From TrEMBL:
Gene source species: Rubripirellula amarantea
A single Gene Ontology CC term: plasma membrane
Pfam families: DUF423
Membrane topology: Multi-pass membrane protein
Protein known as: DUF423 domain-containing protein
Length: 138
């Protein structure tokens, strides 16, 4: 896969995850409190769940933006950029996705997956650092 197709693919991932992040965040702000209240979630747990959901949505959008930046980079090998993108995507799914599931279902075991998403993001950022360090264009 050449550099243009790598950038194009990562840009599609950025756009899709960004749109989903906005949609999910909007639901979290406007629909989730009533949804959880109708499920019988007590006020203390409701506050905690809304904060968890907000954390998932915020990090989701941060990493959608990171994907956009990664697509826009004019340096680094396509392969290394693809790996960074994979780790960012995995982080969105594992970190944010597990928080979304925890909040919707109340199954706290989903929280055990969340740190794996954080680790995935750390690896993605480290990959980006290595790509940047090796670049002759900066």
């Amino acid at each position: 896969m050449n550099d243009d197709s790598t950038s194009r693919r990562i840009l599609v991932y950025a756009a899709v995850t960004g749109a989903l992040g906005v949609l999910i965040g909007a639901f979290g702000a406007h629909g989730l409190p009533d949804f959880l209240a109708r499920q019988g979630v007590d006020p203390e747990t409701l506050t905690k769940r809304l904060a968890q959901f907000d954390t998932g949505a915020r990090y989701h959008l941060v990493h959608a933006t990171a994907l956009f930046a990664l697509a826009s980079l004019g340096f680094g090998s396509p392969e290394s950029r693809r790996w960074a993108a994979r780790f960012f995507l995995a982080g969105i799914i594992l970190f944010s996705g597990s928080l979304y599931l925890l909040v919707f279902t109340g199954i706290t075991k989903f929280g055990m997956v969340t740190p794996l998403g954080g680790l995935s993001w750390i690896i993605g950022w480290a990959t980006l650092a290595v790509v940047s360090r090796k670049s002759k264009h900066l």
